[in-house]
Amino acid sequence: QLVLVTGASGFIASHIIKQLQTSGYRVRGTVRSLENEAKIKPLKELCPDAEHQLELVEADLLKPETWESAVKDCNYVIHTASPFPNQVVKDPETELIQPAVEGTTNVLKAIQAGKTVKRVVITSSIATVIGGETGVDTTKTYTEEDWANVDKLDGYSKSKTLAEKAAWDFLKELPEEERFEIATIQPGYVLGPIIHGSMCTSMEVPKKLLERAMPGLPKLNFNIVDVRDVAEAHIKAMTAPEAAGKRHIAVTHNMWIRDIASVIAEEYRPQGYNVPTWQLPNFAVWVGGMFDKTVKLTVPQLGKQYKLESTKLKEVLGIEPKDSKETILDMCSTMIEGGWVK
Ligand code: NDP
Fold this sequence. Notes:
Layout: E1 2-6, H1 11-22, E2 26-31, H2 37-44, E3 55-58, H3 67-71, E4 76-79, H4 92-114, E5 119-123, E6 141-142, H5 155-173, E7 181-187, E8 189-191, H6 204-210, E9 216-217, E10 221-226, H7 227-239, E11 247-250, E12 253-256, H8 257-268, E13 278-279, H9 295-298, E14 307-308, H10 311-315, H11 324-337
Parallel strand pairs: 1-2, 1-4, 2-3, 4-5, 5-7, 6-14, 7-11, 8-10, 9-13
Antiparallel strand pairs: 10-12
Helix pairs in contact: 1-7, 4-5, 6-8, 8-11
NADPH dihydro-nicotinamide-adenine-dinucleotide phosphate binds at residues 7, 9-13, 32, 39, 60-62, 80-84, 99, 123, 125, 160, 187, 189-190, 198, 200-202.
């Protein structure tokens, strides 16, 4: 069985590829450039004992002509590629929304033309459920039934929401005889070991904590999940009969930044990393450090804890969540080993 993984060079995709190869699947991955040795080399080394070597091809979300050959002969597609920058971009429309939405549609059109793909698993986000909105109800528990209000979203959340909606709409419009299946995964804040070759947005918080980029911690809350659990969820959603046509929220632990910092401090302070654990008052945010570029997004989130139901992750996909301490510390150790921490 041949699986296409789009955006192979990414944090989440690298774990998906490793697990697929370990399970004996043939895997083809798309990258924007085969020339980028720093990104390609770690991919080739993900699973040295794999029965089938990883095949890499070039494809770009905004180049529709690149996708037909990429999906050729595939049985499944796992679509992770989407812009996920670690700062607010100048023009969200062209830098985020267009590539996410048109890219998803380009991949789906190629699948429709190729006729071999049975199911597509799309990496969506909890941003499509609660978004980066202000005024999100902290008393409510959000479920897969909920959709963020696109009129109130930041560029990234909007790109993810419109891309996922475009996928479900695309499927609805397909003639019966050309139908394939779609399942989507909505991860929260993904943490865990780094096995790919580039800086990614998920690394921001642990990196800033290890580097003591701020003396005090803003009161920010995250619904976190281990990257290995997210990867497994994608692979289970590819074949589990009951996953077809469904969204799956993937969050497993709710933590304030201070909780994350405490886990890191306990392990790494003795090793000389001066990890901050002092909680700033609720109204304050350390503008000069961590969230300088995203302060507009961050301030409305201060002190707020959002509740999300994630029962399908366990009940439909059978994921046994990793311990949050293991997730956080594995991320830190691989970031330090990989030279990602100053
Ligand atoms: P990465 O930035 O590591 O991965 C993003 C991938 O998308 C990269 O491989 C990147 O390729 C690719 N990509 C971006 N733009 C294009 C384009 N125009 N054409 C082709 N490929 C492109 O981030 P993650 O692994 O964290 O994210 C993967 C997916 O998971 C994204 O869809 C993201 O929205 C989603 N997600 C992530 C969460 C997290 O906490 N990490 C939480 C919820 C959802 P290149 O290497 O060439 O830049």
